[in-house]
Amino acid sequence: MTKEIYKNIWMSEIPLHRTPLKTINNYVIKDGKKALIIDTGFNHSLSKDAFFNNLSNLDIDIAQSEVIITHLHSDHSGLAAELYQLGAKLYFSGIDGKIAKEMGQDSRWKELEEMMFQFGFPKDANSFDTNPAKEYSTKSDFEYTVLKEGDKIIFGNFELEVVSVPGHTPDMINLYDRKHKLYFSADHVLDEITPNIGYWGKKYTVILNQYFSSLKKIYDFDIEVMLPSHRGIISNHKKRIDELLEHHEERLEEVIKILEEKNKKMTVVEVAMNMNWRIRAKSWDEFPQPQKWFASGEAMSHLEYLAYKNKINYEIENDIFYFSKK
To answer: How many domains in the chain?
Structure first.
């Protein structure tokens, strides 16, 4: 269902096949037959049909429209190539855009499979072939205009300022309309659920620390309505940011406690399987493989942060990461 949530801003929930998120909030700023569209859904018929049905209901011509992709994840960028081929103008941040273009390449997933081995997964368990992040990613090439901090996109009565908020991905962007006090938070700030903060490799140093900085960066923004990519609209962003920061502090304490109680060198996977997760599974063995990947990536981002703060020990042995208490 598509509903007008603010004058000339329409929101629809795009279904996401085979993922706990279930839907993504797709935003359309309408100006006649033209639209400024924020994010797309998966490269899957379920998302695609809903996306184009919503545009049809709004009488939008995609060839006259512009699409801002807030970050590289497939639920946000899956239809990027198809929309580009239909004539839409695409916007992306530089780094996330580059990675999104690589999502259809096997070399990208081989790197991630190697990372899973470094986390402590056996090599034969590291295939991403059935992972929605790969399966429903954009597969064809596309061109895009790079957006960076402070850039402004004027569309209709709105002036959207680009805000760089690395953390959930290396180069995620948000959009802020100061006049209307509207803020499109993508997956930076979500209500009810906490954004996954995974590990992106040594190239993107201490990503959890970057996420903390990005949360604090927007804390004092004058925002009346925050529009996230999943779940409900947020009316008190400061309260929600405080809750997210508290959540990660509790996570960090949990990781330290696990290392102290086990009193041995532990792989990322060993730490992850001892953490508490909100998932319908009785044990780690019952986790779907994609959820093991997400959980281990989040465990690693917290371990990396604690090692950066010199609160735990970190070493690499036979290409596998190990952590232990101080």
So the answer is: 2
CA pair distance 133, 126, nearest whole angstrom: 14
271-300: per-residue pLDDT in tens? 999 999 988 888 999 998 889 999 999 999
**Residues in contact with 181: Cβ distance below 8 Å, sequence separation at least 6, in sequence order:** 222, 223, 224, 225
Q: Residues 88, 12: one domain? A: yes
Q: Residue 300: which of 251, 262, 264, 261 has the closest Cα? A: 251
Tokens read off for 140: 């064809």
Let me know whether 200 and 304 are in one domain.
no
| Predicted local confidence at residue 147, as pLDDT | 98
Pair 174, 321 in one domain: no
Return the bridge partners of 68, or none.
38, 91
Where among 206, 221, 243 does a domain terminate?
243
- Coil, helix or strand for 148? coil
Rounded to two decimals, the pTM is 0.96
User: Helix, strand, or coil here: 307?
Assistant: helix
Kindly state whether residues 231 and 262 are assigned to the same domain: no
- Would you say 39 and 51 are in contact if contact means Cβ atoms under 8 Å apart? no
DSSP symbol at 266:
B
Show the low-confidence residues of the chain (pLDDT under 70).
125-126
- 175 and 149 both lie in a single domain: yes
Q: At what angle do helices 94-102 and 106-119 cross, to 10 degrees?
A: 100
CA distance 90 to 77: 10
CB 11 within 8 A of CB 27: yes
DSSP state of 275: S
